[in-house]
């Protein structure tokens, strides 16, 4: 096995999660939209926090969905990752 930077990899689970967050109804989880609606206020609290986000695909997909639903504000999603270096 070769060593590689795991934070730069789009992992299969992250890819599938991103696909579902990009289109929750088609994916069969319309509850995601209900959660966005119920948590979308301007309190300053993030709606989603993705730890160890790597390339951040699920966060980007959720941001896109929220924008299309009209519920996006600048502090809605926080994605973080760090390397050992």
List keywords for this structure.
two-stranded parallel sheet; 2 strands; single chain; 44% helix; 85 residues; mainly alpha; 4 helices
Order of helices and strands: HHHEHE
Q: Strand pairing plus helix content: what structural class?
A: mainly alpha
Roughly what fraction of the amino acids lie in strands?
Answer: 5-15%
Shape: flat
Sheet with the most strands: spatial strand order: 1-2
* Helical content class: 40-55%
How many angstroms does the end-to-end distance come to?
21 Å
Describe the structure.
By secondary structure, the chain is mainly alpha-helical. It has 4 helices and 2 strands. The protein has helices at about 10-20, 25, 30-40, 55-70, and strands at about 50, 75-80. It has a two-stranded parallel sheet. Helix 1 (about 10-20) runs parallel beside helix 4 (about 55-70). The protein is flat and about 40 Å long. The mean pLDDT is about 80.
């Amino acid at each position: 096995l070769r060593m590689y930077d795991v934070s730069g990899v789009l992992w299969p689970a992250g890819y599938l999660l991103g696909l579902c967050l990009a289109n929750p109804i088609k994916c069969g989880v319309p509850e995601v939209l209900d959660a966005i609606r119920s948590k979308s206020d301007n309190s300053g609290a993030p709606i989603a926090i993705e730890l160890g986000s790597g390339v951040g695909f699920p966060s980007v997909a959720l941001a896109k969905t929220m924008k299309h639903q009209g519920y996006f504000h600048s502090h809605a999603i926080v994605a973080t990752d760090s390397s050992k270096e």
